Amino acid sequence: xxxxxxxxxxxxxxxxxxxxxxxxxxxxxxxxxxxxxxxxxxxxxxxxxxxxxxxxxxxxxxxxxxxxxxxxxxxxxxxxxxxxxxxxxxxxxxxxxxxxxxxxxxxxxxxxxxxxxxxxxxxxxxxxxxxxxxxxxxxxxxxxxxxxxxxxxxxxxxxxxxxxxxxxxxxxxxxxxxxxxxxxxxxxxxxxxxxxxxxxxxxxxxxxxxxxxxxxxxxxxxxxxxxxxxxxxxxxxxxxxxxxxxxxxxxxxxxxxxxxxxxxxxxxxxxxxxxxxxxxxxxxxxxxxxxxxxxxxxxxxxxxxxxxxxxxxxxxxxxxxxxxxxxxxxxxxxxxxxxxxxxxxxxxxxxxxxx
Length: 355
Hints:
Elements: H1 2-7, H2 12-15, E1 20-22, E2 28-31, E3 37-44, H3 45-50, H4 54-66, E4 75-80, E5 84-90, H5 97-104, H6 109-128, E6 131-132, E7 141-143, E8 149-151, E9 158-159, H7 181-184, H8 191-208, H9 218-226, H10 238-247, H11 272-278, H12 307-318, H13 348-354
Antiparallel strand pairs: 1-2, 2-3, 3-5, 4-5, 6-9, 7-8
């Protein structure tokens, strides 16, 4: 498929159906190999560039490739043609948490606690990977068929590499009602505490059925947020009130401590998929390059086969399609690692079998 796409780029949309069988022209599609439904997000390049959303889309793709968690909408694959970008995502059927609140009102504490625990768990995981969501709200929290939370929309997220020399992020972004006071103050903020403030607002909404900070006048809204001016409804338990008040503390030096301090941090283990996502070989910029811009196609891979056999197989696949194969400055690394298994991405099941 890759070779065909290189020669007939305009036919890439047709080539994609080798992996995904389209069921309707909207969002739901099916993986033709497993039969599982997937969501296909189709973006028009011209519109993305017109509305200056290229950086946001690239950031979302880069971020989601780094995250693999049961409470995050999974990114399966990204493909592109001359005019379109295709993002293959996990198909989540339960709708938004926001709709659940609108339709059914406030939740019992045991139900809200379950969602909040899942939310805190996934936010902590993202932070451990150097990812800050920066737009957490019920509209971006989806529910699967079993009622489990699925965090989506990482378009405003930031990576730890974006932190400045002062150790803070400086881009003001997010949804006003859910944003932390320090984000509004425009003096820099910690992405971790900013996300946890949003989690506190979400917990309040789950238990109360309405926003803790709300005003038709934006300036008044910001004043209420900066002063943490809110009142818990009387039906909340004392423990719930204490937790919400603890999280929604306007002082970023003392706020948002939800869990006890962890013991000494262990180095984060990264599999090959995560390493590849961080390499220069995965340059998402060419998804948005115009025809006048020159870009280099590049593929890297590892193999257990001898060099001559690899070249022979490439020639066998390419020549019937009308391609010529040229060998130039290629490298075969014999000592890439102490064991090839160290750099081959394996599933959890594979890892269990090798133990």
